[in-house]
């Protein structure tokens, strides 16, 4: 029996690839209700983010991004309603200095996708179909392969396919520990008794650290609460590109004619929020401090995206991406415990990477040749002892685009 712990996009993708690879007797347990974790908060940007020297993900992640792009395109083409669109991703620059940095990092990247190109403000108007005030920007770098989708729909679709394949889901069943005999896993301990399993995958998002602690292991992980707003309909074109802007600390896209947007102005370390009284167990947090911070920021963003000015908010949703000290992802065996595997450290890009991470862990479990080198994703690549507390982990994020947020806390 293979037991996946966590039915978010990571656990669902791991289960799907195990089943597609021929594994039998796969079950998935989740502490909470369907769609209650971080995944539905995800904004649904998917692109080749590793092909950018300004990000810490590194080029080893590009095969996972390519696989994720192909995976979602295939789901979409096979008839799943994901609110999928392939309009590319634009990294916007408000100043020439920023445009030069983007050009160095993305255009000059040896693995830049064909068609990656520099845009001036007229070019920005073209791919943004009027959503950006051209006078407020210098230009940007356009990544043509970028897609967008609705994350909850993707998660739901994968779970439905797994159910059709006979995979059992146990909802409201928190794993509390792992039974280990002679150094190998034999079962998952839950509030409803122990489930026999000779292979276990931790895919519990921000809660994976607690599961690792239950087997006396630790990874240097930094949970961060992030916020997404969906505006009232604003008449945006469904053909506009997804957008990111370093100077505004912003990501933004169209969703059913409205703005779906957020950025590090409304992010904060989970530890800082819980110290300030945020109560949180499973599910998604609600931090009014961050909601206020994002509301306060809206008119600044509207200086570049005029239709956002004064626009009411229809929905707010928060979730907890988990950052790593080296900016990389974790996919692999939990050292020293036979049969135990983990997917962790999504770096706020788990929608993009879950298909590839799920495929890779499935191939490692099934002892197949992995589609990409698993070495950069190993759990033992960083010594957790080098990071005795969160402050030391945050300090290691100095190069990260959200480092200032982490420092502020
Ligand atoms: C505002 C925001 C915007 C984002 N935008 C993007 C984006 O544009 N593109 C992108 O690629 N990524 C994005 N992300 C990141 C992405 O959403 C996450 O990386 C991804 O959803 C993480 O999926 P997961 O399966 O690891 O976690 P989750 O979805 O949280 O799933 C973990 C599951 O484990 C369960 N669980 C926890 N503990 C236990 C236990 N003890 N026993 C059993 N089950 C347990 C939980 O109930 C939960 O269902 C964004 C995130 C946020 C918050």
Automatic annotation (TrEMBL):
Residues 2-364 form the FAD dependent oxidoreductase domain. Transmembrane segments: none annotated. It holds the Pfam family DAO. InterPro entries: FAD-dep_OxRdtase, FAD/NAD-bd_sf. It comes from the Bacteria. This is FAD-binding oxidoreductase.
